Amino acid sequence: MVLTDSTMPDMDGFQLVERIRESADFGTVAVIMATSAGQRGDAARCRSLGIAAYLTKPVRGVELKAVIRATVGRGPDDTQAHPLPGRHTQRERRPSLRILLAEDNPVNRKLAVRLLEKEGHTVVVVDNGRHALEALEGGNIDLVIMDVQMPEMDGYEAAASIRKAEEGTLKHMPILAMTAHAMKGDREKCLAVGMDGYVSKPIRPEDLRQAIEELVPA
């Protein structure tokens, strides 16, 4: 088995695997690739090269151990025909969402937009709850990420207004709360006004990704 990084000087990971596949002695070796900056299309390239798994760094120990066990248990033909999905391969199969982000802090807003766009989502940005309600009137939104503390109308008020407008209909807009406090009782307060999920700031990419997957499954 070969564990390689995708980005290296002189010869990158993909070029290395191409050379390996060309070799009669090493062409069937199982390969796991790790990257810190995955690009769309990499998963398809991995499949064409028979790469067993494609992981984004930092790679968790439990994840790497599971991937190695699954990869070692395969024969060469299985590796070629059925590449084992890693986190990035799964991400490419997820739907691209149109997300409404309501956040008044410029720094937090910029970070959240960068994380969401990196996942392939389209982001509509507003700076308070009232503007969020106005943006929702235009439709075509798959998910709302709402900071709970904003001027004019906070996230709690905005979420309650969204749920009130949905009464008597079959509509349910997924709402993910975002708060800087992460204090005991915050989650319960968010759920009480109709929010579906909860992440705390500073935002961790994996927490945000998992929360979105739970609210809008692929």
Q: How helix-rich are the residues, as a percent range?
A: 40-55%
User: What's the N-to-C terminus distance?
Assistant: 31 Å
Point out poorly predicted stretches: 75-84
Largest sheet: 5 strands, parallel
Give the SSE map.
Blueprint: E1 2-5, H1 13-22, E2 31-35, H2 42-48, E3 53-56, H3 61-72, H4 76-81, H5 87-93, E4 98-102, H6 106-118, E5 122-126, H7 129-137, E6 143-147, H8 155-166, E7 175-179, H9 186-192, E8 197-200, H10 205-215
Parallel strand pairs: 1-2, 2-3, 4-5, 4-6, 6-7, 7-8
Structural summary, described in words:
- This protein is an alpha/beta fold and 218 residues long.
- It has two domains: 2-92, Response regulator (Rossmann fold); 94-215, Response regulator (Rossmann fold, 3-Layer(aba) Sandwich).
- The protein contains ten helices and eight strands.
- It has helices at residues 13-22, 42-48, 61-72, 76-81, 87-93, 106-118, 129-137, 155-166, 186-192, 205-215; strands spanning 2-5, 31-35, 53-56, 98-102, 122-126, 143-147, 175-179, 197-200.
- A five-stranded parallel sheet has the order 5-4-6-7-8, with helices on both faces.
- Strand 7, helix 9 and strand 8 (197-200) form a beta-alpha-beta unit.
- Helix 7 runs parallel beside helix 8.
- The protein starts with a strand and ends with a helix.
